[in-house]
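Re: the 320-residue chain
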Amino acid sequence: MEEEILTPVDPDAAVEVVDIQFRPGQKIYYFDPNGIDCKAGDHVIIDTARGPEYGTVAGSNHRIPEKDVVAPLRSVIRKATEEDKKVYKKNLQAEKEAFDICLGKIADHKLDMHLVDVEYTFDGNKILFYFTADGRVDFRELIKKLAEEFHIRVEMRQIGFRQESAKLGGIGSCGRELCCSSWITNFQSVTTNVARVQQLSPNPQKLAGQCGKLKCCLNYEYDTYVDALKAFPDSHIVLRTKKGDASYSKTDVFKGLMWYSYVFDRNNMMAIPAEKVKEIIAMNNKGKMPEQLEDYAFIKEQRNTEYGEEGQNVDLSKLE
């Protein structure tokens, strides 16, 4: 009798899920298929924190490690019926009309806010208006007028500029779909220190995303740079040579180079291997000085002062 060959099962892949997307271009969430065989493109009714909602299957049933599941894992209720699809299309049309109505009332009340999106709950019992604003907005009177207009529960939600980009979607400068609208579920703060540690040019046009804030992807390699920089000497230490003192300008982490320039000639930079920099520092600590920095230089280059690339103190804090 031929022996049966069993395919090993990953012990971590313990939870069956299905990928659901609420709106085109928005994030994808895991749901329990609840015994329903879901195929990509199927329309389903799902259980959410605000009641049953309409969604589209972005990925059929599959298993993932239990640690990747955010509890509680809500379930698919059923595949959408023709009647469900009609309700969904009706809600979409109603949202467009509500958007225009709300814009008009915002103008009437002269409120300093930017309307981003409108959503009806699937059951039609509540309508949500999403907006951005630079500060706090008193929209109490606006809600009263909207409630009188729609005769259902009205909710206004102020969201951040990153969340606005996540809802609207788009393509980033990398040519890929925006991370915030495709897979990021929790927004982490991105500080100017993240750009500084990675030796990125302080150019707002390059570092800002479509939301006008520092790009989320700046966080991706930050920890790697922090670990790599531990092998480099302190950049605040001035290198002393007989020709003159030299101060630090920048670091090429991957090539292991540190760029220095003489205090009397800031425009001409020289790349010194990190190990050689350590040697010079060790000599200085013993009271000795090499003849000149050029004897250790690996590369020389002219400092670029255009577009905030080098030598300019550009404030990026407003992009955080």
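The chain has eight helices and 13 strands.
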